[in-house]
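Q: My labmate handed me this sequence with no annotations at all. I'd like to see what the chain might look like in three dimensions before we decide whether it's worth expressing. Could you predict it?
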Amino acid sequence: MNGKQRRPVRRTERTAPKKRGFNPFKVFFKIVISIVLAFVMLAGGACFAYYKITGNTPFADDGVISNNASETSLLDALLKRNIKLNVAVFGVDKDGTRTDVIFVVHYDSATEGISLVSIPRDTRISLADEVKANITAEGRSYNQVTKINAVHAYSGEKMGCQNAVLQIEDLLGIKIDHYVKVDLEAFRAIVDAIGGVDMYVPQDMYWDMRDTGDPLINLKEGQQHLDGDKAEQLVRFRHYSNGDVDRIEVQQLFLNALAEKVLSTETILKNLPDFISVMYKYIETDVSLSDALKYVNYIDKLDMSKISMETLPGVGQYVGKISYFIYDPEETREMVDRVFYSVDPVTSDDGTQTDSKALLIEVANGGSINGLAAQYSKKLENSGYRVASPTNYSGQQNTYTRIQVKNEGVGSDLVSFFTDAKVEVAPNEVDDDVDIRIILGTKEK
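A: Here is what I predict for the chain of 445 residues:
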């Protein structure tokens, strides 16, 4: 699958998601990732303070070349125009070699929601051509078919995250705006950085597995103040009467308490030096200072209660003597459309399901800002749509954007790209050589 081209989902019926086995390590890291995303949004204040004090930036500087840096301009951010942001998050093992935890975090400012897609570390992949070229250029070796968590290891420290991002783009057919690599020690450090979390521990928790290298768990029932060490004990504990059902509930309670405190203005101001320290020590990212200053404008459009989590569709399976996770390409495409593009397939006249990505779209400038049609054409193209050359519209101007389609049931997935847009069925107004015409309204900037 090419990372820049998207194939439409065509299915005769929706397939119910398969139930996945519970992975405590992933749920544990879900908490870390949620807070990391909050850090990306809050990074403007932290980076600015660090920059004023030291003259340096704790994140990547503006000269760093990222794979697909966000195209959100500072003006867009100041006006809080809707953005969609994809962040690849890697949790590395003790020696920092393999990415044993891989998530893609999708943030949509229009819905204020966060979606996390977990990619099992054993996912069987064939290395993308660009990844192979990068590894070869570094004089390193690789196996063509391997587990996805090995990409970082094959690539080495210099190209590890970049190649891991390229491989995810190839796997999912999306663009990644930024990456964040987190040391496993970050979880405790993050909790300590905000001064701990207060919550009610629902039962006594005791578990001594120190002979295996796991920490001692020893918590008492009742209202507790949890520092980083105790918080790790809480999310690791698994001996409940209802098993994983209870465990997930406790972890969700902790996640909500943690997120609420992290997003508190008082917490941010009080612990800013510690935030800077944690980011600088434990988090590696290609987020630049300018990016961070843009994203901080969206902090009030981040609702940590709107978190959904999915796993790459597939099954565990042995290939020879090696255990892999074999992903399902068709179900993966459906999940990507739903999670990253907010698209549910619609049924066409012949009973098949399709969406606007299968159609050719023309963007016409119906306002007075030169180059605006080209700008929106580029945004749609970057989101996986087929776009014709931009044109100018000479008819009557409207304040709202008109999404003209030939058939009913198409075009609703395009509305979120615009400030004020309406879908209208107008087959006689759309040229024969395109399927959809978008006439930009004067509200678009």
